[in-house]
Amino acid sequence: MHARKLDDSVYMIDLMPQGVKNFISVYIVKGEKTVIIESGPACSVENLLSGLQMLNISREEVDYVLVSHIHLDHGGGSGTLLHFLPNAHLVVHQRGAKHMVHPEKLWLMARKVLGKVAEMYGAPESIPKERIIEGYDGMILDLGNNVRIEILETVGHASHHLSFHEHSSNKMFSGDAAGIYLNTLDVIVPTTPEPLYLDVALAAIEKMIRAKPEMLCYTHFGCAGNAVEKLEAYASQLKLWERIVRECLINGESLEVIRERIVEEDVYVNKAASFIESHPIMGQRMLLQNIQGFVSYVKRKMG
Ligand SMILES: [Zn+2]
To answer: Which residues surround ligand 1, an ion (CB under 5 A)?
Structure first.
């Protein structure tokens, strides 16, 4: 387990779900009030709590847990986590809130889509309605000491996605809206499962670019500089995937052929494909699932 201070107000914990390093990071932002960004999955809540302890942050002082969206790896552990944080409220997109109160459907869907990985992450626990705050675009959380978080609605990866911009350190906590950053390879990879809304996903990237962040703090994984450049690169990558998928569908190609062409033409994926496909969590399914998001999107568009 690995927890450290990034700057005067921001800390990071590597959650290491089932011992897998460099895959899920959560962030703590501290002014006079304290916020945790992302809960991670249920299976790594214990690691999160020991990370807090290592950073000398008490459970009582946490005021809010902000989740980018309710997928298991981001918000799935929030119900479990809130048991240990007596004063904290959960902030989640309004379309995700009801699934946090009644997580049964979320758990069912997650098992369908993720299979064994969902079992590994663990089942989400219900959160009492009165501990949930619905986050919305433009909402400001003033943490005191000049630390302010602005919420941006950044739907596309999911219909219930938020990103968080901390103004004084100029960090953008992007959830899954800016893709996955494989920090050890310095590579960005799309995270675009079904149902993908590409046009709104691109608009969300534009919105983050307009905020001119200095650093992007990904959930997968870690903070990186040149934020605007990375966001622009991600938008181009999504457009490249769309073009390849469209061409392949017109020619009646299979998912496997589309995968091969993407590996060939996308310099990032080319560099990262074998790493991704042998990764204990991302594995063989991830690229194909993300391509499938594009396939359904392009088919919808073609009518
Ligand atoms: Zn994710």
So the answer is: 73, 176
Task: Tell how far the Cα of 122 is from the centroid of ligand 1, in angstroms.
Answer: 15
Report the separation in Å between the CA atom of 61 and the middle of ligand 1, taken as the mean of its atom positions: 27
Largest CA distance in the chain: 59
The CA distance from 87 to 266, in Å, is 46
Find the CATH number of the domain harbouring 32. Answer: 3.60.15.10
* Pair (115, 22) in one structural domain: yes
pLDDT tens digits, one per residue of 28-44: 999 999 999 999 999 99
- Provide DSSP, 238-268: HHHHHHHHHHHHHTT--HHHHHHHHHHH-HH
Domain that holds residue 165: 2-235
3-state secondary structure of 162: strand
* Ligand 1 centroid distance, CA of 164 (Å): 15
- Percent of the chain's residues with pLDDT above 70: 100
Calculate how far, in angstroms, residue 77's C-alpha sits from the geometric centre of ligand 1: 13
Tell me: pLDDT of 303 over 90: no
Q: How far is the CA of 134 from the centre of ligand 1 (A)?
A: 20
Residues 113 and 194 in one domain: yes
Are residues 92 and 28 part of one domain?
A: yes
Would you state the structure tokens that stand for residue 218, as one six-digit string? Answer: 């990904």
